[in-house]
Amino acid sequence: MQSLSGSGLPNSHQALLKNQSLLSGRLALLGVASAHLLRELPGTGLAMSEHAGVFHALGQQGAWQACFGYEDPVLANGGSYDTVVVFLPKARAELEMRLALAHSLAAENARLILVGEKKEGIAGAIKQLKAIAPQASKVDSARHCQVWCAEGIRVAQGFRVQDWVTWGSAECAGISVEVAGLPGIFSHDGLDKGTRLLLETLARQPVNAERLLDFACGAGVIGAWIQAWQAENKVSIAGVDGVDVQSQAVICARETYQCNHAAGRIFASDGLAGIDGLWSGVVSNPPFHTGVKTDTSMTEQFLQDVKRHLLPGGELRLVANSFLPYEPLIKRYIGRVERLSEDGRFTVYRAFMG
């Protein structure tokens, strides 16, 4: 086996490689975080990632069948995979769904492997694993991870992500929209405070645009709400396109738009790298976490790229935690910036392209 030192792979991927003797027959890997893993593996098969950038990289790996998240058409055929590897997702609620997908891909008497980091909660996830595989046992602790294995998995019925979609509502400024949810995407506790503050400014001071782009659109709340507000106030309705990096977000946004009769296209893209087009307004409540760590690099890259997609005089409207250093970044990449609203925790910024 090749040395893993300096490989740059996530700990969970390194732990799997340390135990690659368990990988036999046709492989299905669910939740791949780095395409470099495939180069280290002896076999081929299916590799699924919910991240648009990782999915694109997986598609460059020769004989492997790359899948984007839970709605990829390839998954509709079920599977006959002899070994199915599940990497622990960040959201615990997602693990049950990922295990159900694994079950649907397994051949008769297949082997199921669960790998995850201790700090991400692998110990607490074992109960969920044993609910479908009571025979599962721990086979290794490595790279700050645990590796669990279950033999003799039985074939299950086909997997449909639509069976996991739930619905909630989001209300702001007297306007309510129905919002689709999947594990780890939309909170049925209602709008998060940042999005609410952003929508309140959009009600008081609408963006003057014929077409908008919602960056990091999540479940599509902002676009559906804007159009519902415009309809209620009898003003010209602007289409709102959405873009997000995560498969579940794209699925939910499309469902949300359809339910609320919202107009707009929903794209899957890692940032704006895969997006063409010009908009007269861009709105965003961008994420600032990678796992449990604060990471503003995605938003900084967005601010560098968005100027190529804003028409002259077009507006950027962005909400962020007040402690994040976005004001100087917006000024650097877009131009003069003003604070439209603050509540002590969040700030809504506005800037116009020169």
Number of domains: 2
Helix content: 25-40%
- Model regions low in confidence, pLDDT < 50 over at least 5 residues: 1-6, 289-293
Distance between the termini: 56 Å
Beta content comes to 25-35%
Radius of gyration over C-alpha positions, nearest whole angstrom: 22 Å
Structural class computed from helices and strand pairing? alpha/beta
Separate helix tally: 10
Order of helices and strands: HEHEHEEHEHEEEEHEHEHEEEEHEHEE
CATH architecture group name of the largest domain: 3-Layer(aba) Sandwich
The pLDDT mean sits at 91
* CATH topology group of the largest domain: Rossmann fold
Shape: elongated
Strand order of the largest sheet: 3-2-1-4-5-7-6
Task: Characterize the structure shown.
With 354 residues, the chain is α/β, with parallel strands linked by helices. The protein folds into 2 domains: 11-161, Vaccinia Virus protein VP39 (Rossmann fold); 165-352, Rossmann fold, CATH 3.40.50.150. Helix content is 29%, strand content 31%. It has 10 helices and 18 strands. The strands form 4 sheets. The chain has a 7-stranded mixed sheet. Helix 7 packs parallel to helix 8 (247-260).
